[in-house]
Amino acid sequence: MSTIQRFGAHPTFKALGGFGLAAIVLFGIAPALLSDFRLSLLAKFLCFAIVAVGIGLAWGRGGMLTLGQGVFFGIGAYIMAMHMQMADAAKAHEDVPEFMTISGISELPSYWQPFASAPVAIIGILVVPGLIAAVLGFGVFKRRVKGAYFSILSQALAAAMAILLTGQQSIGGFTGLSDFRTFFGFRLDDPVNRRMLFFIAAGALLVVVAIARQLMHSRYGELLVAVRDQEERVRFLGYDPANIKIVAYVVAAVFAGIAGALFTPIVGIISPADIGVVPSIAFLIGVAIGGRTTLLGPVLGAIGVAWAQTSFSENFPSAWTYLQGALFIVVVGFIPAGLAGFGPMAKGFIERFRTARGAGGATAGESITASALSTGAPVEESGPVAGARTADEEKVDAR
After folding, report:
1. Calpha distance 105→170 (Å, rounded)
2. For the whole model, what pTM was predicted?
3. Kind of pairing, strands 182-183 and 177-178?
4. What pLDDT shows up at residue 356?
């Protein structure tokens, strides 16, 4: 094997090649081929892919079926929305955002005020989802709650979050927050700035995937898989499985918060309908279809499912929900590895076919010899017919 082939086979160089190819597609090919509308739509799908990377880490590697990622997605989205609303109000020399004036609120709520600062808003997007996930994970995993009980609890949290936001008029109530004009000083009605949002989302996705890959290929990643497969054995070896799960849960929450913060300026609205139970399940479906145990499977699955939802719902609005559910059932029931598992499955099928074909083409003598060698029986030399005399032997007898 040459030096170039050895470098190409190394996992690090393969990963760098994959990241380079992804960067070319996201930063070069996509902007050149897609219209501004389609590019903005793809930016929204990239936000879903960022959430999917965290779910792939927590569920695919850690075995934690997280049905409430919409909570952390919503926290990041609402923090960004509050900052943008206050920035627009300050630029218009108003004390409160426009929707508060319409609702009869004349004084800015106290929990809004810290997020008027851009650095505080960014820190809040990164810290608040992770902090809430750490507190929840500590209370759940330390009590050894897992499996379906954890899934139900996380889903109930998402439902409670959506109900809570619906009743709060100070953050938009049922309609949510919208009508954003600027994003950190850049006007959102400028097509150049809209493209900038796509590039930010694409860069964030690459960074998140790089972090997830580093975690998966580290010693912590090995422990996370061990906890998923043999939690009691890991505890017997002296590790606390709860701490290992908490870290993965917190990382997934931070990823979801980042995705929500990018989703708000890209889409232009955030409401309780975007963070409830249904969006949380939609995140999960994309991960399951793409392949939850792989690195890129959740990314491709989330983008593919979101694209299919947009395309099919335009033509078959009532049938898409049933198709999505059927696809999820088929993948989970018959293809647990997701679409990312088709490659290994096809490779294994081809290898088995070649093996069977080679075994079928063997001669009878080779089969007998192989059988004798495997059983330890003596192997006779092969001839035209067992026990037959040669022509030279018959001539000697005639003399």
Report:
1. 8
2. 0.82
3. unpaired
4. 79
Within 10 angstroms of residue 226's Cβ, the number of other Cβ atoms is: 16
What is the token pair recorded at 42? 């793809």
Residue corresponding to tokens 């934690």: 64
Amino acid sitting at position 177: L
Enter the DSSP assignment of 187: E
Residues of the chain with pLDDT under 70: 1-11, 341-346, 359-399
Q: What are phi and psi of 157, to 5 degrees?
A: -65, -40
DSSP 80-131: HHHHHHHHHHHHTT-SS-HHHHHHT--S--TTTGGGGSHHHHHHHHHHHHHH
pLDDT value, residue 203: 95
Share of the chain above pLDDT 90, in %: 34
The pLDDT value recorded for residue 57 is 92
Task: Quickly count: other Cβ atoms within 10 Å of residue 391's Cβ.
Answer: 6
What are the contacts of 1-6 at 24+ separation with CB within 8 A? none
Tell me which DSSP letter residue 188 carries: T
Orientation of helix 118-141 relative to helix 241-267, angle to 10°: 140
Scored b (16 or more CB within 10 A) or e, 246-285 reads bbbbbbbbbbbbbbbbbbbbbbebbbbebbbbebbbbbbb
Model confidence over 193-207: pLDDT tens digits? 999 999 999 999 999
Structure tokens at 32: 């050149």
Q: 């997830």: which residue's tokens?
A: 212
- What per-residue string of b and e applies to 358-382 under the rule 16 or more CB within 10 Å gives b? eeeeeeeeeeeeeeeeeeeeeeeee
pLDDT of the residue at 275: 86
Please tell me the predicted confidence (pLDDT) of residue 119: 93
CB 124 within 8 A of CB 81: no
